[in-house]
Amino acid sequence: MGNLTKHNCKGRLIAVEGLDGSGKSTQIYLLKRWLELEGYKVFFTEWNSSLLVKKATKKGKKARLLTPTTFSLIHCTDFADRYERQIWPLLCAGYIVLADRYFFTAFARDAVRGCDRQWVMNNYSFATLPDITFYFRLQPKIAIKRILDGRPTLKYHEAGMDLNLATDPYESFGIFQGRINDEYSKMAKRFKFQIINAGRPAEEQQKLVRKVVSEQIDLPAFKLRVRGRL
Predict the structure, then answer these.
(1) pLDDT tens string 44-53
(2) CB-based contacts of 49: which residues, under 8 Å, 6+ apart?
(3) What is the Cα–Cα distance from 147 to 150, expressed in whole angstroms?
(4) CB distance 43 to 100 below 8 Å
(5) What does DSSP assign to residue 15?
(6) Which residues contact 142 (CB under 8 A, 6 or more apart)?
(7) What are the distances in angstroms from CA 199 to CA 27, 75, 152, 230?
(8) CA distances from 64 to 60, 67, 152, 172 (A)
(9) How far apart are CA 100 and CA 20, in angstroms?
């Protein structure tokens, strides 16, 4: 695993990974709401959401100036900013941190774009491994259908058009997602992902997610303490 290790903080880190259309964002939102309603200390963060690099990322994508290396470094910068300002401080403060995508997303996408796998991992070696990583596994063709059913057009980089996989964006998207799926499959055993069948009903998936979280994390230790109560 290179230099990737787990933390010794009071908090716990839960990440979700999966193809676009796998339903992982819905599942982590449901987990977040459940933990909040149960009165636990929770913080949520999502991929590519740092304000520090948002403008640069948008400008680079729009002008199609991003090489695989710069694309990788921009996302790493985004992650590093959120890690330093949000993830790590809240782990140290004893929160359950929920991450909608973690550095495994970079490991998969950047490898498909041709970046050296070890180089990418080294770039993220400052970050801890999650305590639990849920991988919502779904056949690429089903994930693609879900995305295309709700979206009339695909963005250039989203479809992997920068890789020259195909001239048609939908065909390119299918090839791109298939290759990302292959990368996730390679990582699943190595990083001990908790694999969830994303083809099952959402209610069944959430029930399993909560079961795993309850078994692997001492949830009562994360209860919010209300001041003034005896």
Answers:
(1) 999 988 887 7
(2) 78, 82
(3) 6
(4) no
(5) E
(6) 21, 199
(7) 13, 29, 23, 46
(8) 6, 8, 21, 16
(9) 12
194 forms beta bridges with 134
Lowest mean pLDDT among 56-65, 146-155, 191-200, 205-214: 56-65
CA distance 199 to 140: 11
Other CB atoms closer than 10 Å to residue 107's CB: what's the count?
21
Count CA within 13 A, CB hemisphere, residue 212. Answer: 19
**Residues 61 and 55: beta-carbon distance below 8 Å:** no
The two structure tokens encoding residue 111: 């490898």
Beta strands in 47-191 (DSSP E): 96-100, 132-137
Instruction: Give the integer Cα–Cα distance in Å for 196 and 209.
Output: 8
Is residue 151 within 8 Å of residue 208, measured between CB atoms? no
- Count other Cβ atoms within 10 Å, centred on residue 59: 11
pLDDT digits (tens, 9 = 90+) for 29-40: 999 999 999 999
CA 203 – CA 177 distance, rounded (Å): 25
How many CB atoms lie under 10 A from the CB of residue 5? 11
User: Per the confidence metrics, is the pTM higher than 0.85?
Assistant: yes
What would be the CATH architecture of the domain defined by 12-216? 3-Layer(aba) Sandwich (3.40)
Structure tokens at 8: 């010794």
Let me know: does 132 contact 217? Beta carbons within 8 Å.
Answer: yes
d(CA 47, CA 42): 17
